[in-house]
Amino acid sequence: MTLPNEEVFELLRDHFVLGARNIEKDEHVGLSHGYKCTQSAVGTTNGAGARNVQLLMLAADGTVLHALPGYWHPDDLKRELKFALRLHLLNDRQDLSAAQKSKMLATMHRAFLRNLPAETLARSRWQGFDEQAERMRLADGKRDTFVYEYGDKTTIKPTVQVVHERLMSRPFQKLADFDMESFVDYGRAFYDNNRGDKGRDFKKAELANKKRVKEQEKAARAEARS
């Protein structure tokens, strides 16, 4: 998820119960050439590899408090983990209705985005191949990954903004109801930056990706016919 950082480890150790699940067969999974346990991950930009790994922060009853797709810089991950703890306090409040909590959650996300430092926004820029893939999808209609200006001009949003805006539309959902496919659906599904490093391939992920591509092509044909 991120490069080793003692402050991140301390936050996780003191405030979270850690667990992991293999997503290799999940329908939303991406495709990559994996690292071995003895290899070190290379630093990249926030949100890169969204389909390959997700960090979910859950309440005890399975409510999704916060979710981060892909890689995150340690300094930004610390900020997001602390934000999740504040959302946990909001979720636990018994004096508020679900509607009131949803409204407050959206306000908190917007305030979080307004107060992000320039360094975080810089680390949340898109990788070139991800932005190219995302811009190609504009031909199929509007995407929530862009700011639409006058005429045909579009500006791509920082990945941190995309993530928080998508979470605003999923206020305190149970994990079983959380649409991970649409949440991580941006950029490119295939990452091969470390190919040739004698890592491993993920055969089940290859099958899941082929299945997703076939379903997308089938849906596109059906839409064209209608």
List the topology elements:
Blueprint: H1 6-15, E1 31-32, E2 54-58, E3 64-69, H2 74-92, H3 98-114, H4 118-123, H5 128-136, E4 146-148, E5 154-156, H6 159-168, H7 180-183, E6 190-191, H8 203-225
Parallel strand pairs: 1-6
Antiparallel strand pairs: 2-3, 4-5
Helix pairs in contact: 1-2, 2-3, 3-6
* Low-confidence segments: none
Q: What is the topology, as strand order, of the major beta sheet? A: 1-6
Tally of distinct domains: 1
Strand content: 5-15%
Radius of gyration: 18 Å
Major sheet: size, sense and barrel closure?
2 strands, parallel
Mean pLDDT: 86
Helix share, percent: 40-55%
Encode the helix/strand succession as letters.
Answer: HEEEHHHHEEHHEH
Number of H- or I-type helical stretches: 8
Q: Give the beta-strand count.
A: 6
In short:
With 226 residues, the chain is mostly helical.
Structure description:
The protein has eight helices and six strands. Helix content is 43%, strand content 9%. It has a two-stranded parallel sheet with strand order 1-6. Strands 2-3 form a two-stranded antiparallel sheet. The protein has a two-stranded antiparallel sheet with strand order 4-5. It has 226 residues and is mainly alpha-helical. It has one domain. The mean pLDDT is 86. The termini are far apart. The radius of gyration is 18 Å and the shape is globular.
Descriptors for this entry?
two-stranded antiparallel sheet, single chain, 226 residues, two-stranded parallel sheet, mainly alpha, 43% helix
